[in-house]
Amino acid sequence: MESPMAVSPSGIELSPNASDAVVVRDLTKRFGDFTAVDHISFEVRTGEIFGFLGPNGSGKTTTIRMLLGLLRPTEGEARVLGIDITREPQAIAARVGYMSQKFSLYPDLTVDENLTFYGRAYGLRGKVLARRKDEVLETIGLARQRTRVTANLAGGWQQRLALGAAILHRPELLFLDEPTAGVDPVSRRNFWRLLYDLAARNTTIFVTTHYMDEAEQCHRLAFIHRGKIIAMGPPGQIKRDRMTGQVVEILCDRPDVAIQALREAGVPEVALYGQRIHAAGPGLEARLSALESLLKQAGAGPRTLRIIPPSLEDVFIANVKTSVQ
């Protein structure tokens, strides 16, 4: 027999699954006349990496601040690890970890001193703190750097240290807000390996990002735009279900000319990806020959046109356009 669904005093159903780490219902935050987060609802399952994908200013950080109990919602309700974010916000801090995009490290302290500071802030002392520091330094690959001043570390290593500080107290849930912003691609890839290791140990991870390649690494995603969730699900499912029409990849000699010609011909979405153009819209598969002729007449020098599976970025752009129409 299924367990009854938890219901808040306002009548909002809060938990379709008692094991969900985060449950959000109609969460809203207004600042005066501006609505930063607009009646969003979602769940984060225990042990998964949940991605919150959206451009700057879309409401990602505001949502995290509400879930951490740092910002009171205007409307709606949420539970984090079973804790009501409005009634018991102070109870959340001891059970979660948080890493912001600015890392929140003390540059004049050594690696070891930074970990000591954050460990004590989480209530760790003595042998327990010493053991956890050793374990974390091994996990993040900084054991040999523990005496180095943090300011002298490269950006990727500072990123790892910030993650280490956030997991010292073994949080059940880890919030990462744009954790790889400004970090080189190799460091970003290594960082995600660490996240998968943590998830394998049953740490739930809620990560915001605007990098599409990172979003592909998440178990499930929510697209947020202008404070509203416009799509949600596993990356593969979103690409299958939320893309209307087809994507044509075009390689040509003059991309600028091709882009203008395609837009003038009424192709709904046209964007440049490196040296290739992605044209997206309904019925494009049947128009391949016509598009090739169009580009030849425009002097774009088309070389190849082919239907390809949509990328997350293709899908995101298409859903953003639909949401604002």
CATH superfamily of the largest domain: P-loop containing nucleotide triphosphate hydrolases
User: What fraction of the residues are assigned to beta strands by DSSP?
Assistant: 25-35%
Cα radius of gyration in angstroms: 23 Å
What fold name goes in the CATH topology slot of the largest domain? Rossmann fold
Strand order of the largest sheet: 8-9-10-5-11-12
The total tally of domains equals 2
Secondary-structure element string: EEEEEHEEEHHHEHEHEEHEHEEHEH
Mean pLDDT: 90
How is the quaternary structure best described? single chain
Q: Termini separation (Å)?
A: 44 Å
Kindly name the structural category.
Answer: alpha/beta
The DSSP helix count reads 10
The unreliable regions are: 1-15
What is the number of beta strands?
A: 16
Q: Percent of residues in helical segments?
A: 25-40%
CATH architecture of the largest domain: 3-Layer(aba) Sandwich
Largest sheet entry = 6 strands, mixed
CATH class of the largest domain: Alpha Beta
Structure described in brief:
With 325 residues, the chain is an alpha/beta fold.
What does this structure look like?
α3 (126-140) packs antiparallel against α4 and α8 (255-264) crosses α9 (288-298). The protein has helices at 60-67, 111-121, 126-140, 155-167, 185-200, 212-215, 235-241, 255-264, 288-298, 312-324; strands at 6-7, 13-15, 20-31, 34-45, 49-53, 75-80, 83-84, 96-99, 173-177, 204-209, 220-225, 228-233, 246-252, 269-273, 276-281, 302-308. It has 2 domains: 6-232, P-loop containing nucleotide triphosphate hydrolases (Rossmann fold); 244-309, YebC, transcriptional regulation domain (Alpha-Beta Plaits), CATH 3.30.70. Helices cover 33% and strands 29% of the residues. β9 (173-177), α5 and β10 form a beta-alpha-beta unit. The longest helix is centred in the middle third of the chain and has 16 residues, at 185-200. Strands 8-9-10-5-11-12 form a 6-stranded mixed β-sheet, sandwiched between helices. A 4-stranded antiparallel β-sheet has the order 4-3-6-7, with helices on one face. It is an alpha/beta fold and 325 residues long.
